[in-house]
Amino acid sequence: MLYLYTYGNKLEFYNYVGGSQSICFKIDWTPSTNTWYHIALVRIDNGNSASSWRIFINGVSQTLTLQAGAWNGTINNWAAPLTVGTLTTQYFNGWIDEFRISKGIARWTENFTPPTAAYSTAGSTQDNRVSIVKSNGTIGTANKASASAWPSSDATATYGGSSDLWSETWTYSDINNSNFGVAVSASSTNSTLSIDHIKLKVYYTTTTSTAGTAGSIMLQGF
Q1: Is residue 77 located within the same domain as residue 138?
Q2: Residue 170: exposed, middle, or buried by beta-carbon count in 10 A (0-12, 13-18, 19+)?
Q3: Which residues pair with 7 in a beta bridge?
Q4: How many structural domains are present in the chain?
Q5: Domain that holds residue 14
Q6: What is the DSSP letter of 1?
Q7: Which of 22, 115, 185, 191 qualifies as a cystine partner to 147, CB 3.0-4.6 A?
Q8: pLDDT digits (tens, 9 = 90+) for 100-122
Q9: Residue 221 · residue 152 · CB < 8 Å
Q10: Same domain for 137 and 205?
Q11: Based on the domain organization, do 71 and 133 belong to the same domain?
C-alpha cells in the first residue's frame, strides 16, 4: 500500500511491503482551511538519501525526515485500483483539483512557480524545465516551465520578462560570459521534439559597475 496523507501538523508519505513500512518520511506542515495548496511529491532517483525525494508545497521544497524504512525502500507495482482522497472508510475533507501522476520523469527538482492553468490534454509534450545557466555553468534554481502542452506546429513561447531576475543576482560579467545561457528540457510519451532556436533578451540599466536584469527567453520551433 502506498500513501500520501496528512495527520496533525504533518504531511507523510509511506509504502507498505509485506506488512511493514519499506519507506516512510514526513514534513512539518500546518495548512489553513479554505486555502488552495499545490502539493508535489517527486522521486529524483533511487539513491538512499533525502536528496532522492522532494515534497514541494506551493513550489517550495520542504525538509524531509525519515520515519521508518530506507530512502530507497522497495515500492512494488500494485495491482489494486488507485483511490484518491479515500482510505477504506476515511475520506479527505476538502477539494482536490488537477491530480496528476507522471511516470519516468521528475517534473520538478528545484523550487518552481506552480502552474496557474489546467493541465492540458491537447498533447503529450510539455516543458519539464526552463532555467538560466549562470556564468559558472550551474543551472539556476528558478524553473519557468509551463504546464501547457507544446503545439504540433511551429510557434513561439516567451518566458520571463523585463523585470524578472530569475531568482538570481547579476553582473555584466555574468551576461558576457560564454557559459551564460538557458537550459531547456521537455517530456513526451510518443513525439519527436524540436527547438529551432532560442533567443535571450537582456534588459539592463547602465551604471558604473553592474548590468541589470535578465529578461525574456523566447523558444521557437516547438
Answers
A1: no
A2: buried
A3: 10
A4: 2
A5: 2-91
A6: -
A7: 115
A8: 888 777 888 888 888 777 776 55
A9: no
A10: yes
A11: no
